[in-house]
Amino acid sequence: MRCLKIILAGLGAGWLLAGPAGAQTTNAPATLIENFEQQTNAVIVKGFSLVGAVSVGDATISVRSKESTDPGNNQKVYGIMVVYSRSGNQPGNFALKNALVVDYDELDSLIGGMDYLAKIGYDVTPLSGFDASYATKSGLRFSAHSERRQGGILMFIRFGDSPKIQLTTEQFNQLHNLIAQAKTALDSIK
Fold first, then answer.
1. Whole-model pTM?
2. Separation between Cα atoms, residue 80 and residue 110, nearest integer Å
3. Is 82 within the bounds of a domain?
């Protein structure tokens, strides 16, 4: 019996040690611009401009254009940053800020995805409900949702694993326009 306990203890320890070694997770940034900005042994200049902002309840979602430069190697990368911030001035609320970067090469696809979601209708599926979404490499997600074929289609934005934030159609369209303006601004400096 004692021998069996020793064997089982040895097997358990082996499983514990083998588990983490099998699949290591890294927290490497998903976007080119974030990886570029994490370079070491180089001066990195991060340029940015506020394109505009949309009020969503007690929060603000802003869109900024970004240019990051390594002057020593004459390299530049471009993108946008979408920032959600809430002041926390209301009782029981806390200040919150969440920001995600979208690489320049994703912008056309993001704008196209948002165009599709803005025009989506109940005919997208024969079933009674749907959830359609578009996500970037960094986890910025826009979605349209309906439980049944009546009433309105709800629009949302989500920052990674954060809870979804409901947007009105007007707010969704404003964000779409700000992202398109940011791309146009970046096109003019590239």
1. 0.81
2. 11
3. yes
